[in-house]
Amino acid sequence: MSTRENASTFAKGLRVLECFESGQRGMTMADVARLCDFDRATARRLCLTLIDCGYLVQNGRALELTAKALAIGAGYLTSHDYGRAVQPILDRFAEELDGEIALAVLDGPRALYVARSATSSARVSFGFSAGSTLPLAPTAIGRMLLAQLAPDALDARLAGIDLQRYTDRTETDPTELRARIRETAANGHCHVENEFEMGASALAVPVGQIGGVPAALGTTASVNAMDDPATRNRVLDILRRAAMGLGYQRGMGTGA
């Protein structure tokens, strides 16, 4: 088998694993074939290989990820010092916010949460955790990630994004979306209301880079809680101080 064929097979195996990112239960080999656009024989062969390697387990017809899949993610978190340097900062500023705060990085057409902290009194929570993903276009943290790209890189990224309408307030016009991203870059923060979830208001600020890709900090609250400009300014101040703390701890702005 040639190098190209080996790489192709490996890439297909990764696509199978990506089918389980949403946490959907009861997924079968037929579901994997459909989601990956593979024929059933290919999907079966790849699933059986991942079962043999310990990354999937089969109960009846249903497939599930095993805990072994966590080890790869744990290696990423350890190498970037999340447990010692990042999580304590997020915990401290979540308490100051009396809400939730999340750190995300740009991952293809989405924002990927790499750390999060929330108080028990957080008024708005989507149940996200490290490893959860958000669309880029309708979210504050997503637009803040896009705003850190060079113009050519931004155009290429937007060309690959499906501008899905999540609410009747979601901006789906490419020209207007670019204008809002440029405004985000100029302001150094992003504020989005009701575009991803009605009743939710989100703020985000840039952090710099983690592993060579843009990173951002964000928080979500109810629209009513963010109506007052003084409240928004207070939240922005907390997010900016948290971002500075992360930068000082890890040199994120230098691409660490």
Describe the protein's topology.
Layout: H1 3-18, H2 29-36, H3 40-52, E1 56-59, E2 62-65, H4 69-79, H5 82-97, E3 100-107, E4 110-118, E5 133-135, H6 140-146, H7 151-159, H8 174-187, E6 190-193, E7 200-210, E8 213-222, H9 229-250
Antiparallel strand pairs: 1-2, 3-4, 3-8, 4-5, 6-7, 7-8
Helix pairs in contact: 1-3, 2-3, 5-9
Please provide a brief summary of the model:
The chain is α+β, with helices and mostly antiparallel strands and 256 residues long. It has nine helices and eight strands. The chain is 45% helix and 21% strand.
Give structural notes.
By secondary structure, this protein is α+β, with helices and mostly antiparallel strands. The protein has two domains: 3-66, Orthogonal Bundle (Arc Repressor Mutant, subunit A); 72-254, Beta-Lactamase, CATH 3.30.450.40. Helices cover 45% and strands 21% of the residues. Pfam families: HTH_IclR, IclR_C. Residues 68-252 form the IclR-ED domain. Keywords: DNA-binding, Transcription, Transcription regulation. This is IclR family transcriptional regulator C-terminal domain-containing protein.
